[in-house]
């Protein structure tokens, strides 16, 4: 009998059977026809499962409700138009600003126009790919610390891996920004406050940002505002301390120092402490939520595909010298990088990007009114049936094929594209592949019995009930 179970069965197949591969978790789609009320409520709960399956084949979809009109763009030319060719005509929506302002103030993630341009001019130099070498030791130290934290958990009992990946991702950001580990008193207070903030909300999701009527369920605004105030207070404390260190000439050379001492090349101004606190808020949030989600899904995929896990672990064993930090390690972790890229194709941490049409447009022979919501959905684009071969399958070798490279050129945008592309993309790729390799060098991961994670869109794509795995040490002696 040929089997196609939820585990890799290659070696168990009788000869002559086609090799069966598991299919990575994908949310069930809603029925094609549902009532408006049912659609809105599903939309609020989780925007991924609220969509019909045809969006994986369509080039564009229009949603008209009494409250908003939105266009989901899957046509690579349209995506290019919105993100790269004319980003000024498709600014971030005012709803995004309204929803995130209590936590993020005037941070670069939600501003538009001249204010955003100035912020980008000051921030970009700190993240240039040539500067990744300088933050690499911070990533390395955080990865080593994560391996240590996982040790007492690696006894074969199921654990939710997401809190662990959140912990290490936030650790990386604190070390890179402020030269402090997440265990530092203020840093760990921020970590706790972020958790309380998410629990009070429970996290903004893309659906909650569309202009829906007031009776559709919302987060508890008062509690959320209170936790946002706590986080902002703590961040402001870190920024003020750093300013004092800069004034006294004793500040370490890290990302915070670089950004706070960079002047806008156009008008010579630097960030005020208040402005810097806004940016730190988004570095902490965008930098850790996204990397944590990608890393958790990567470990899930490694558990689902033990053959790939073995290859990444072997590469890590060969390349990583635990006693020495070599930046060249990053470029040698090729399999880990291919796996991390494929993970972000299947589970793009930011599943949809929301824009607003600043003026009337015409998309694929349809009128797009001014003010319409424009949705670019990496979630659908990355699994588009007319663009990708085996769109729902896990295949890290696709990046080396001409066909895969062409699909990727047209439809792979986990970090967005154009003027508002993620400034942290090189940082995140280096961090992701390194931590994945470090963890797999030390631990074997397996699926927790009876658990299949369900991807849902919160602020990032997460497992609805977590992502449950078991860990066991790869070898008994610790290097
Ligand atoms: C796997 C990790 C990451 C992913 C997938 C990711 C993805 C993204 C995406 C898709 C956007 C644009 C969203 C939109 O246009 O609506 C974005 C923006 C941004 N990201 Fe990342 N990001 C990651 C890590 C980081 C890191 C590590 C940092 C910094 C430490 C960072 C900082 C930012 C900032 C500041 C923006 C706003 C840029 C702007 O609007 O001009 N991200 N990120």
From TrEMBL:
PROSITE patterns: CYTOCHROME_P450. Its cofactor is heme. Pfam families: p450 (PF00067). Keywords: Heme, Iron, Metal-binding, Monooxygenase, Oxidoreductase. One of its GO terms (molecular function) is oxidoreductase activity, acting on paired donors, with incorporation or reduction of molecular oxygen. Heme binds at residue 422. Residues 1-11 have a biased composition (Basic and acidic residues). Gene3D superfamilies: Cytochrome P450 (1.10.630.10). This is Cytochrome P450.
